Amino acid sequence: MKPAPILEQYQRVKREYPDAIVLFRLGDFYETFGEDAERVAPLLGITLT
């Protein structure tokens, strides 16, 4: 199964900037994925979903 387009874009950007935390604006919200989400969640006091 092929990853969703947003995840493909995340992986592409993450390969180019491995030390950066990558955020995507989706409508009124910002999203991050994978290890970035795990790093950001406790810093912002939010729950991973």
Task: Throw out a few tags for this protein.
49 residues, alpha+beta, two-stranded antiparallel sheet, globular
Topology of this protein?
Elements: H1 5-16, E1 24-26, E2 29-31, H2 34-44
Antiparallel strand pairs: 1-2
**Whole-number tally of structural domains:** 1
Q: What is the spatial order of strands in the main beta sheet?
A: 1-2
* Amount of helix: 40-55%
Q: What average pLDDT do the residues reach?
A: 94
How many DSSP H or I helices?
Answer: 2
Helix-strand string: HEEH
If you had to describe this structure to a student in words, what would you say it looks like?
By secondary structure, the chain is of the alpha+beta class. The protein contains two helices and two strands. The protein has helices at 5-16, 34-44, and strands at residues 24-26, 29-31. A two-stranded antiparallel sheet has the order 1-2. Strand 1 and strand 2 (29-31) form a beta hairpin. The longest helix is centred in the N-terminal third of the chain and has 12 residues, at 5-16. The protein is globular. The model has no long low-confidence stretch (mean pLDDT 94).
